[in-house]
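Students often ask why inverse folding is considered easier than folding. One informal answer: many sequences map to the same fold, so there is more than one right answer. In these notes we will look at a single instance of the problem. The structure comes first.
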């Protein structure tokens, strides 16, 4: 028989146990805590620059990309239980292709736009199919996601919002290739291919995450005779794997938590991660390759046009229609080249500003301990304690002036100010000029659009 005191002790123990359980977060909240370890800002900063685009706010501009680059081109597609998943071969591709959206801005070119609540998807793209072609394009930033109901925009809206050159088309027979970039038609060809295909985009919820069900693998297998392996996507709880995709057998392991409130938490950390010199030198190298790359696109477009004209044969009506389409394709190619040059120039300016900032930062770190010396020693100061550090740099070189204790701070300030004028001031002036240009051009960005 339980005594009154024993009953009270039992009840007290039960209340304590309930209290501990109430204070423990459920598994879903534990995943949310793990998701906070994804730092979109620092993870992407080594490969590009975060810039404020008036239409979208804080966006990431990739710098380490080749001429003519477009999202979802450096990598390949695999069939998964969530639909077609993009396996990126870009060094930074584990995040921007599965979270957020892409948009084409008339000033910066392609920019990645983080969404408010970052939700993982196998790929945020629209799909087209038909006439022996498969096409895909990044979804525009206003294509949101509602769990349980799918995309917030219809297919007809997508057709209007996605710019023509954003679409990538490839022959159906090449769709399963791990080197799919080499088989993508030149963007000028899209005028014709958009009229020959139909939008098949259809998203639905699967395990509370987006899954694309419009481009059915059975259609491609039927038309090509090639069977695709189906992969099962499984979770990795290791934050360090956020940029990696691990394929083991018939499974793909990815880190894919839901990250709430990303846009509100984005900010420019002082002294944060910056691109390496190798990355910032990429736009300069690509400028030398610009004409060659555009010439290759024009040649590829002409080959496709010659092949199509040959198929028209003796049908004069058909030949006239093909000729009109091809004239429009060549005009589109010229427009693309103009836009590509503009965005490449802007990437180069951004890279130059980053390099100047690094150079000035190194100069300031070297100068600060030198301004405390006395004396009138000439030449560049090497930091040697001669008469309490009398060496000084010349103003024209932006080095420290350090002439005497009484004037050391004043002259040091001049040296720093002049250093800024020479090393940074140009960047600031150019930045101000760029800002004026940005104010002129930023409003021209097309959501989810192409070049």
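Output (designed amino acids):
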């Amino acid at each position: 028989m339980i005594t009154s005191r024993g009953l009270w002790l039992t009840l007290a123990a039960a209340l304590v146990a309930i209290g501990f359980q109430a204070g423990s977060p459920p598994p879903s909240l534990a995943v949310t805590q793990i998701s906070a370890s994804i730092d979109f800002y620092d993870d992407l900063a080594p490969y590009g620059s975060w810039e404020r685009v008036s239409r979208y706010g804080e966006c990431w501009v990739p710098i380490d990309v080749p001429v003519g680059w477009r999202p979802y081109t450096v990598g390949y597609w695999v069939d998964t239980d969530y639909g077609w998943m993009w396996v990126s071969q870009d060094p930074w591709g584990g995040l921007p292709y599965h979270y957020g959206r892409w948009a084409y801005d008339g000033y910066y070119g392609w920019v990645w736009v983080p969404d408010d609540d970052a939700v993982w998807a196998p790929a945020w793209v629209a799909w087209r199919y038909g006439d022996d072609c498969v096409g895909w394009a990044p979804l525009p930033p206003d294509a949101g996601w509602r769990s349980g109901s799918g995309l917030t925009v219809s297919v007809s809206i997508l057709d209007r919002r996605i710019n023509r050159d954003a679409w990538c088309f490839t022959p159906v027979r090449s769709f399963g290739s791990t080197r799919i970039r080499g088989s993508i038609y030149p963007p000028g060809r899209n005028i014709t291919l958009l009229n020959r295909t139909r939008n098949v985009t259809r998203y639905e919820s699967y395990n509370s995450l987006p899954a694309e069900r419009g481009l059915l693998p059975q259609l491609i297998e039927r038309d090509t005779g090639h069977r695709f392996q189906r992969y099962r996507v499984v979770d990795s709880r290791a934050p360090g794997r956020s940029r990696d995709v691990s394929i083991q057998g018939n499974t793909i392991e990815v880190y894919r938590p839901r990250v709430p409130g990303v846009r509100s938490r984005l900010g420019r950390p002082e002294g944060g991660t910056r691109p390496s010199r190798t990355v910032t030198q990429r736009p300069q190298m690509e400028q030398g390759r610009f004409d060659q790359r555009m010439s290759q696109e024009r040649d590829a477009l002409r080959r496709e046009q010659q092949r199509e004209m040959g198929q028209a044969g003796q049908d004069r009506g058909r030949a006239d229609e093909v000729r009109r389409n091809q004239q429009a394709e060549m005009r589109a190619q010229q427009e693309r080249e103009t836009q590509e040059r503009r965005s490449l120039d802007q990437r180069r300016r951004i890279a130059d500003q980053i390099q100047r900032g690094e150079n000035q930062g190194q100069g300031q770190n070297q100068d600060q301990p030198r301004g405390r010396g006395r004396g009138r020693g000439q030449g560049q100061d090497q930091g040697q304690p001669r008469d309490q550090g009398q060496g000084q740099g010349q103003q024209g070189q932006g080095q420290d002036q350090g002439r005497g204790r009484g004037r050391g701070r004043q002259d040091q300030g001049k040296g720093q100010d002049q250093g800024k004028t020479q090393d940074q001031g140009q960047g600031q002036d150019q930045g101000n000029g760029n800002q004026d240009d940005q104010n002129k051009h930023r409003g021209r960005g097309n959501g989810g659009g192409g070049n």
